[in-house]
Amino acid sequence: MDIDVSKFFNTCLLFVATIVVAKLISAFIVPKSRKRLPPIVKGLPFIGGLPRFLKGPIFMLREEYPKLGGVFTLKMFHKNITFLIGPEVSAHFFKAPESELSQQEVYQFNVPTFGPGVVFDVDYSVRQEQFRFFTEALRVNKLKSYVDQMVTEAQDYFSKWGESGEVDLKYELEHLIILTASRCLLGREVRDKLFDDVSALFHDLDNGMQPISVLFPYLPIPAHRRRDQARKKLAEIFARIIASRKSTGKSEDDMLQCFIDSKYKDGRPTTEAEVTGLLIAALFAGQHTSSITSTWTGAYLLSNSKYLSAVVDEQKILMEKHGDRVDHDVLAEMDVLYRCIKEALRLHPPLIMLLRSSHTDFSVTTREGKEYDIPKGHIVATSPAFANRLPHIFKDPDTYDPDRFTVGREEDKVAGAFSYISFGGGRHGCLGEPFAYLQIKAIWSHLLRNFELELVSPFPEIDWNAMVVGVKGKVMVRYKRRELSVSH
Ligand code: HEM
Fold it and tell me: Could you tell me if the CB of 436 is within 6 A of ligand 1?
């Protein structure tokens, strides 16, 4: 018995000694940085946090942020995804050069949709030049001519509504935005003659981007086969249009023309395939994002009489000043409407998760003063949907309060550049932001001036399952034509 007790005692002693020695070794031998790795989200062996991530990344963030703070790592199989939440820790995410944090690997799944030779299929130096083409195609002088087309499209579209009636606003705005986008971006030929064909092909491209496509973009499933066929047909259609414009020397005011006329630094013009790919990328970047935002804007305005009156009053003032004229400069004066759109977009950014791949180690300091080292090889993520509702930045973050952006409050700026991130920011901030605002303002100013509107379905829920997160179900609205009375 005595022998057993002393054996047990010796074993315990050995066990404790081993732990102490292991701790000492790890303190002295293991590099210091290891001690500052971000905390890890609890998960299952091997698959790690996959089930929780699949349940919805925002639900996971809501659970983990209060426990772990703004920096933590989610393990999935052999991958580490480190989240940087809040402007205090996300600056590097937005500002780092491509050599340190890159998009190419994490956004590869777009390649079969956009096509070869563009955006994430090319080296950063070429991609940078292609983004320069986007920047040029979206300059103010170009935007001015796009606005005229946006206004005409809205007028034509809503002229088909009756004296009064009930519509699904979500469907209507989706449809109007694809018409407008095809006019401004894809060009007159597509808008006037090929709209049905091209939008059916875009529909197939769209359906070819499923959540599974992010992990396995080339999986031989019917949706991917249809996507590939649609892409081929679109390339043929645009090749014909481009050839015809080139042979007749006809030039138009659209993004297609800008891309046809674009040249790389070495003087090389864009190829037909590149022009097609860039147009598809533009449509993918701007279409769902804008139509979702215009629907949320409507849902909030029609549920908040204070802001609905404020935007209607603003329209009256502008009509007194400019009559019926709506152009780029008149839209630029719609500050109240701008803030109402911006606030809908704060609460519902359609791109809920932004990703990068890290190629160098870097460190971040949280607002509590904790320092963490993020090793190279991690995927780094931030989330507009979560960060845009942080209570230490936005007062009553779940409340629709467009006045939070007024001078004196400016909650989108006071905590630093990356407080409001619906359009990303820094090095890869959205190039289409002004275009998107102009388009949504053009639509809503027309609706406010010409219709009395009432939301008749319940306030919409969020469709978390979509790739570009939007509104779930229909948004039924009752309308009645009106003319705003203004004293000239
Ligand atoms: C409400 C509408 C829109 C929203 C919410 C939105 C959001 C975003 C976000 C969050 C990013 C950054 C992605 C990242 O950092 O990984 C981005 C990038 C981009 N967006 Fe938008 N976008 C919108 C409309 C548009 C439109 C209309 C266009 C073009 C016509 C456009 C073109 C682009 C381009 C080219 C980039 C890539 C910039 C770069 O990587 O340097 N977007 N957008």
Answer: yes
